[in-house]
Amino acid sequence: MPPTPMPDDWQRALVVAAHPDDIEYGLAAAVAVWTAAGKEVHYLLATRGEGGMAGVPPVEAGPIREEEERRSAAVVGVTEVEFLDHRDGTLAAGPELRRDLAGAIRRHRPELVVTGYFGATWTPPGISPAYVNSADHRALGQSVVDAVADAANEWIFPDLVGEPWRGVQYIAVSELVDPPHEVDVSGAVEKAVESLAEHRRYLELLSDEPVEAQARQVVDMSTATGEGRRRVGFRLYWG
């Protein structure tokens, strides 16, 4: 059964990721479509990605990656980027992370909450064997889903500031293979490539290939449909 378009009956979205650059590995193309249509999108990062640059100490890497994420977000029309300052590489699904995420959901008051795929493994089209998903991605995704309910309940984390937020209509989880819902991003591919290329220092450490070429390869892989269109796929849940 072909995917159906993502619902459009929302105005404010919160995109939640574990690390700087996670959103740019596909999701940013959908963000570019949404902001171009007048939607308001905010980013929430659980860590600063300080443990992700080989040879660069975390105290130096964190500010670099934060600045790259802010520039990357601006390319696709996102002006508000919040960091929770959890330690990169050690995210744990549980009350501490859920509490911080629930607090952020109350602050940003989204109708749509978006996060990355958080299954144990993932297999890009045409690739075998499968990759093991990051421990941070797995912990974050489960905690995001739980935090939507936590943000609506005044009793689970009673010390949280702000009124309970019960306005989340949908939770959208990125789905690369066989997604039930999709955003047509055919007109946003160049913005997505430009957005990922803003992670220049990070990408330069990953490969000797030019940054723009790396960015294009990633965006091409993550948005390809095999039908001449480009999409970002999602699996939706009620908020």
UniProtKB/TrEMBL annotation:
GO BP, one annotated term: glycoside metabolic process
Keyword terms of this UniProt record: Zinc
Domain of life: Bacteria
The UniProt record lists the keyword Phosphoprotein: no
Keyword Phosphoprotein: no
GO MF annotation, one: hydrolase activity, acting on carbon-nitrogen (but not peptide) bonds, in linear amides
PANTHER family in alphabetical order: LMBE FAMILY PROTEIN (PTHR12993:SF28), N-ACETYLGLUCOSAMINYL-PHOSPHATIDYLINOSITOL DE-N-ACETYLASE-RELATED (PTHR12993)
Protein name as it appears in the record: LmbE family N-acetylglucosaminyl deacetylase
